[in-house]
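cron nightly-structures :: item 1 of 1
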Amino acid sequence: MDGAYVLHKRRYQETSLILQLLTRSRGRVSCIAKGVLRKGSKLSGVLEPLCLLHIETKGKSSLQTLINAEVSYRHPELIKDRLFAVFYMNELIVKLTAENDALADLFERYSRSIESLSEEGDIEPILRAFEVSLLKELGFGLNLTSDADSGRRITAESNYVYDLELGAKKINIPSETLTIKGSTLLALAGKRRYQVTETREAKQLMRRVIQHHLGDRKIESRELFRSSVDRLDI
């Protein structure tokens, strides 16, 4: 049995589902849950978001067959923007990770992020921490603590531009569109708390970075958020 979370599901034929799962030992896997939509299925109500599952699959192809699934733990119910934040994390995992690529820390980070979303506090620092951690797991870690040109430590009071390939570079004359404060980089690195300016700049930077790795693909969940929750714009 392997630990797993449901990232995405879609109907297949009349009674089955195609699932995208994040597993503890194998990373993201695809599987088919046959007959799960039949009345009286033992998996009815099991294959849902926010549920830590124990699963068993079989098969030699990339599309596994789900044999069994049990709920190990149900995270507290999330509503509105906090639930949408989970959908956003799910979409990032589906679009940025390769199937069957075991990522050692991603599963635990994802689980902790869901738990954090059930607590009081700002959503955006949780999402930024998840994004930074995911990129690091994928080998795209951000240089957030040292200047790419000089190697000196990032200072909170200085201004920088962020080169998507090399990292932060200190500038003396701020640019209206590209400048990011050192305090924002340090907040993303987990070295200090977010303030209003840091929250805004961190969101803008991470959008650029993630889009760089997505290429032409879009994060569809952002449009869902904007149309459903006015105040959430991740």
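cron nightly-structures :: done
The domain at 78-234 is CATH 1.20.1440.120 (de novo design (two linked rop proteins)).
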